[in-house]
Design goal:
Elements: E1 9-14, H1 16-20, H2 29-43, E2 48-53, H3 61-64, H4 72-96, E3 101-105, E4 114-115, H5 118-126, E5 130-134, H6 144-154, E6 159-164, E7 185-187, H7 188-193, H8 201-209, E8 214-218, H9 224-230, E9 236-239
Parallel strand pairs: 1-2, 1-6, 2-5, 3-4, 3-5, 6-8, 7-9
Antiparallel strand pairs: 8-9
The chain binds uridine-5'-diphosphate.
Uridine-5'-diphosphate is lined by residues 15-17, 54-56, 60-62, 76, 79-80, 82-83, 136-137, 139-140, 142-147.
């Protein structure tokens, strides 16, 4: 007699940085395993889970622009390829503990993953598979946060759960001000007007325009991913 789930379908955004954990390699298998275990603990409740992975642990386009003649677009495509590596690694980890998982890429890489097909992604979710969206939006000059907002809107997920290394959104930058307060809730307008660096402007605006609530929370705290997915209070809720 469990209470009805708060969310039926969620989109979880995991940054590349988070996947690196404290590992000197780019990916920490302990982190991917803890994500997989938390997903396993809630998927049996029937909540549909889609994931967007970042790539910053391996390659960020903007920081390589100009290096060895790399233009921004080529650098960004390399960044998108990095997200595919993370997605495949996470898929392997999830499947190793029995979670059926599909990776869909925003550009064709048909030997390693399915292409992104919205209706097919939704079908996978309905069948209880976790769908990992890789290669961002497929376009340079965007971020995987924007990809997360976009996919969230496309598949009609009810919430974007942004897993980060900080506890949520603060009223000021906690690195600069020790008295900064963690906020329980904040509206989109305050995030953009106060320039609180939660997500890039394109991503947050897309959420605002489509009325997608965003939960920003710390994935390094055990249990937080599962809590966020079932809709327990965690981190900061950004909404209207
Ligand atoms: N990227 C891109 N278009 C997208 C998503 C990502 O060009 O739609 C590139 C961009 O170079 C970015 C890199 O992929 O720096 C890795 O993604 P991101 O920085 O968003 O990863 P995260 O910060 O979440 O680890």
């Amino acid at each position: 007699n469990n209470p009805p789930n708060k969310w039926k379908r969620v989109l979880l955004k995991i940054s590349g940085e988070a996947l690196a954990g404290d590992c000197t390699q780019n990916i920490d298998p302990k982190v991917t395993m803890s994500i997989a275990r938390e997903v396993a603990s809630v998927i049996k409740l029937g909540i549909e889970i889609a994931i967007v992975v970042g790539g910053g642990n391996i390659f960020r386009g903007a920081s390589w622009e100009g290096c060895s003649g790399l233009d921004r677009s080529s650098a960004d495509y390399i960044g998108m390829l990095a997200t595919v590596m993370n997605a495949m690694f996470l898929q392997a980890t999830m499947e190793s503990i029995g979670i059926p998982t599909r990776v869909q890429t925003a550009f064709l890489m048909s030997e390693v993953a399915e292409p992104y097909i919205r209706r097919r992604a939704v079908r996978h979710l309905e069948k209880g598979r976790v769908v990992i969206f890789a290669a961002g939006t497929g376009n340079p000059f965007f971020t995987t946060d924007t990809a997360a907002a976009l996919r969230c809107a496309e598949i009609n997920a009810e919430v974007l759960l942004k897993a980060t290394n900080v506890d949520g959104v603060y009223d000021e930058d906690p690195k600069c001000n020790a008295n900064a307060h963690l906020l329980n809730t904040i509206d989109y307008h305050d995030v953009t007007s106060k320039d609180l660096s939660v997500m890039d402007m394109t991503a947050i605006t897309l959420c605002q325009e489509n009325d997608i609530p965003v939960v920003v929370f710390n994935l390094t705290k055990p249990g937080n991913i599962a809590k966020a997915i079932v809709g327990e209070r965690v981190g900061t809720l950004i909404s209207r």
